[in-house]
Amino acid sequence: MFVRHEESGPEGGPSVPPRRDDPAGLTAVQRELLWCLRRLAMVRPLGSARDAHVHALLQRRFGEQGMGLEHLLRCLIVGLARRAVRPVRLHLPCHGAVAEDEQRLLLALDESRRPARLAAVLAPMAGSRGGELAPLLAGIAALLPAD
Questions:
Q1: Cα torsion angle, 120, 104, 55, 1, sign
Q2: Cα dist. 136→52, 97, 104, 118, 130 in Å?
């Protein structure tokens, strides 16, 4: 239940890696995770296959942790789609702006250790079932480098 959100159109091809000049003020890790989530949401049927570009980026950036991150990100995309109460809007991978739903996902990752807060952050997308994604988000957060 993901839709692509493209007000100003793509800024490059689908395999373009995350931009280094980030107008949204995201950290490098946030930019890379957002790029991966956007790419994974494009796989059809959702969650059915590995995206080679996502796999390569996560392996190069996070080493051994990359495979775990890849798996958990795929599970997050499928889990969110199954719990969504409305279409979840994501930009194309190379788009410079951050959609409101993408901001919610990044905030949810920051709130992953506080399940009650996490459920409130995801409620606009997943209703009362947003808190069910807490273990996935906590797993992702645990594999990321400390800021």
A1: positive
A2: 22, 25, 15, 11, 11
Lowest-confidence range among 7-21, 67-81, 123-137? 7-21
Q: Which of 8, 85, 80 is nearest to 41 (CA)?
A: 80
Measured distance CA(56)–CA(106) in Å, rounded: 21
Q: pLDDT by residue (tens digit) across 71-91?
A: 999 999 999 999 999 999 999
Structure tokens at 95: 């788009």
Q: Annotate the chain with three-state secondary structure.
A: CEEECCCCCCCCCCCCCCCCCCCCCCCHHHHHHHHHHHHHCCCCCCCCCCCHHHHHHHHHHHCCHHHHHHHHHHHHHHHHHHHCCCCEEECCCCCCCCCHHHHHHHHHHHCCCCHHHHHHHHHHHHHHHHHHHHHHHHHHHHHCCCC
pTM above 0.90, yes or no: no
